[in-house]
């Protein structure tokens, strides 16, 4: 369950943008409360549909600028507003939006402020999500369902990132369970999607109940390829020249990415559950 898709819904995006653009903690409270209620309703539905089965919920992964309007489009809108002589108040509001969008732009967003880095530097988002997950689990238990809760922390590169995020999450979980008078088993794990995470899996496993392998990002960071650029610009030629046998984003690279996954599995604790989704061509 990738929670960012829930944020992209038409009725939610304005609240996400309001939260991102808020200048103070006080201004963030209202949109976070709205999003909490919406996310909780989502998780209630998922837990009911999956009763008795594990539900892995990945906390927010993409950078926040993905939820904001496009910079160039906003710049053109501002230009048009000035030409049409709209009010100073409207123009000022659009200028503030433009500044906010510009301030969040990154040279390489795939390796920038996203995943657990976002959860650590902007903890209110992850706090809201974890609270929504556990409150939803409590709600469905009251209706006779059996939620199996697994929370995934994305883009971990260092054990301390997972340690900090886990500790913060467990504070929220404990608070909710005590308030609701419940005792719900849960797991907290991470996605191994960076080479360093694979190479230090034994250290990361100290704070993880499970691993899941994100082969898309792991392939990008192992090869140094940006999928959006590599697939249209040079991978077909690389295959034609036999530099690559197949597109590594469609069929796992056994010699590189595969070895990292294998090493990670061997380093992890025996009781740390691992899951990996493979392309059917690879299995064949």
Automatic annotation (TrEMBL):
Transmembrane segments: none annotated. It holds the Pfam family PEP-utilizers_C. PANTHER family: PHOSPHOENOLPYRUVATE DIKINASE-RELATED, PYRUVATE, PHOSPHATE DIKINASE 1, CHLOROPLASTIC. It comes from marine sediment metagenome. This is PEP-utilising enzyme C-terminal domain-containing protein. GO terms for molecular function: pyruvate, phosphate dikinase activity. Residues 1-263 form the PEP-utilising enzyme C-terminal domain.
């Amino acid at each position: 369950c990738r929670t960012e898709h829930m944020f992209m819904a038409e009725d939610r995006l304005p609240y996400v943008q309001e939260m991102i653009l808020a200048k103070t903690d006080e201004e963030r409270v209202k949109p976070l409360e709205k999003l909490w209620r919406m996310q909780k309703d989502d998780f209630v539905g998922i837990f009911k549909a999956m009763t008795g089965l594990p539900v892995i919920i990945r906390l927010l992964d993409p950078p926040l600028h993905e939820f904001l309007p496009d910079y160039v489009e906003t710049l053109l809108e501002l230009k048009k507003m000035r030409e049409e002589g709209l009010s100073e108040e409207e123009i000022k509001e659009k200028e503030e939006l433009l500044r906010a969008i510009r301030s969040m732009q990154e040279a390489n967003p795939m390796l920038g402020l996203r995943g657990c880095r976002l959860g650590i530097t902007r903890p209110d988002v992850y706090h809201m999500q974890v609270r929504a997950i556990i409150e939803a689990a409590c709600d469905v238990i009251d209706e006779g369902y059996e939620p199996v809760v697994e929370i995934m922390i994305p883009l971990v590169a260092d054990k301390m990132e997972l340690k900090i995020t886990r500790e913060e999450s467990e504070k929220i979980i404990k608070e909710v369970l005590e308030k609701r008078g419940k005792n719900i088993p849960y797991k907290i794990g991470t996605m191994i999607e960076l080479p360093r995470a694979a190479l230090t899996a034994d250290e990361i496993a100290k704070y993880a109940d499970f691993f899941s392998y994100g082969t898309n990002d792991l392939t990008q960071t192992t090869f140094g390829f940006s999928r959006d650029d590599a697939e249209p610009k040079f991978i077909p030629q690389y295959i034609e020249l036999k530099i690559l046998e197949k597109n590594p984003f469609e069929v796992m690279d056994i010699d590189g990415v595969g070895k990292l996954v294998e090493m990670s599995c061997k380093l992890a604790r025996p009781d740390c559950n691992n899951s990996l989704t493979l392309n059917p061509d690879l299995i064949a």
